[in-house]
Amino acid sequence: GLGIKDARTAVDVTVTKYFANRTSVAIRAAYSDEDDYRSTAGAVTIRHATPDQNTTFTVGGGYSGDEVFPTVGTQPPPTRQKRTYDAIVGLSQVFSPNDTAQFNLYYAHQSGYLTDPYKAYWGIDNRPATRDQYAALVRWNHFFDSADATLRMSYRYYQDDWEVVANTVTFEWAQTLPDGWLLTPGLRYTTQSAALFYYDPIYDPILGAPYPPGYLNNPGGYYTSDQRLSAFGGITAGLKISKALPAGW
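Above: the chain's sequence. Below: its structure in token form.
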């Protein structure tokens, strides 16, 4: 076949202003253009630290306006719109010379065309026009003097109104080595429930794969076989090696 190809051009710029009262304001602007997708985004993030610099408060908000124009079929399909509004509030705290913690709350509201256009072309993907997403993140770092190493731990909880619920736990051990080397093995465990309208694209004896069960009786309902919306769990192991370069680099 002819296959599929795509080209993407993207620009992402962030400007940060630091004030004398330990407050900073970061303004971000981003633009991305592909053969079948265009996105314009912006965000503002404000951070403020207490006089002792041990506590930092963060609040931010963002917006993304996207256009979807898939290259399928013999006639160009109409351009679809998608909008995303998101917000974050956070708190970082230094408890001791060896312990720091962070807590973030995140919310996003999406509206517009949230369906996969290429699967929709074949009639096997139809998603709601809105999605509300919530997430909470907790991080704790502890430095061990005797080992000259830092244990980094985090937990993230996520849910949305598509009935996807996810839990992610991460551990990293940042081991300092001679001559500026840093060795960081890590382990991450994640588990996720399926979206309310997810179906497993197995063979259907009446319609044949990959149509969802009940498609004949409810062709206008919501359904998707996108594996990112399926139930799954996984363990990921990783290893990072880094080195501090001489002063001036």
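The helical segments are 117-121.
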